[in-house]
């Protein structure tokens, strides 16, 4: 753009600047869409000013990358009427997708991306519509099994397939926040898929530096946290409406499966990235991982499958499994990334009340006599918190 007095004056007009950013966002998306969203959030535009940017929702078709990114960043400020129209139109398009249409922007990936953005900011009850979308996703599992990244190597996965799985995971997380009644087969799909996606995450920590893999890992952990929160908040009235054995299956298998995967993952990541900073690539994953682990129960902690960790000369009167927990996680209360500190605090807090009962147990030591430290570091930091 040429810099002239006229152009400088136009750019100083905020409404005109917004229109320029909107047009460029529709053309190219990406950073232009983020810049447009930043301006909208900073200036608090009136709904009529947002509506003036486009004639109708028809202007966003066909769904190019630019239109996709623009709608995703406009979703929080669109009127309820505009969002409702978009939800209905893109749901109808999603229903017609087949195997060749799943991965493209003008396909299931793009349609789910728009739906997730609109439904995440929408208070309208779309229970039946969302249940219909879930049925479509379940049918893909039967018809296009290879489209689901279950227990696989992400190094060999193309970005389009990763993107589709990310949007499916996001949709299921949204579904759990809405009052939707699911069939037994649908609950099976949701919980089995969650665990399979989580297994994929835990099997691929070496590719976490890849941006799209970070997102996949984060939303997978978020889904497990959403399920944990959902079942933790259930009332007896809600449980009565569940399919038979759903609650026991959750408690005895799926919840246990989540934490048997995530607890070792936290230990592995933090051992490898001891100096991780708040702004590092790991931080988004650590936030989601930490949130998921706050739902771990005391019994699940005590029955962990972590490798034994003892310190030479350390005197202790604690059982080996409890001592391993303290030796593994107590030092992480001083970890540089705050999400790790918070997650570890919540986990160790569940164990503190059990420690005094071992005070009268005879001390034993591991190996050579050295200065004891790790046994009491949790008490010291816990009291300081």
Automatic annotation (TrEMBL):
Function: E3 ubiquitin-protein ligase. Component of the ribosome quality control complex (RQC), a ribosome-associated complex that mediates ubiquitination and extraction of incompletely synthesized nascent chains for proteasomal degradation.
Family that this chain belongs to: Belongs to the LTN1 family.
Pathway: Protein modification; protein ubiquitination
Biological source species: Thamnophis sirtalis
GO biological process: protein ubiquitination; rescue of stalled ribosome; ribosome-associated ubiquitin-dependent protein catabolic process
Domain annotation E3 ubiquitin-protein ligase listerin HEAT-repeats region: ranges: 126-289
Catalytic activity: S-ubiquitinyl-[E2 ubiquitin-conjugating enzyme]-L-cysteine + [acceptor protein]-L-lysine = [E2 ubiquitin-conjugating enzyme]-L-cysteine + N(6)-ubiquitinyl-[acceptor protein]-L-lysine
GO molecular function per UniProt: ribosomal large subunit binding; ubiquitin protein ligase activity; zinc ion binding
Gene: LTN1
Record bears the keyword Endoplasmic reticulum: no
Region forming the signal peptide: none
Annotated EC: 2.3.2.27
Record-linked InterPro entries: LTN1/Rkr1, LTN1_HEAT_5th
Keywords: Metal-binding, Transferase, Ubl conjugation pathway, Zinc, Zinc-finger
The UniProt record lists the keyword Disulfide bond: no
The protein, known as: E3 ubiquitin-protein ligase listerin
Complex formation: Component of the ribosome quality control complex (RQC).
GO CC annotations, alphabetized: cytosol; RQC complex
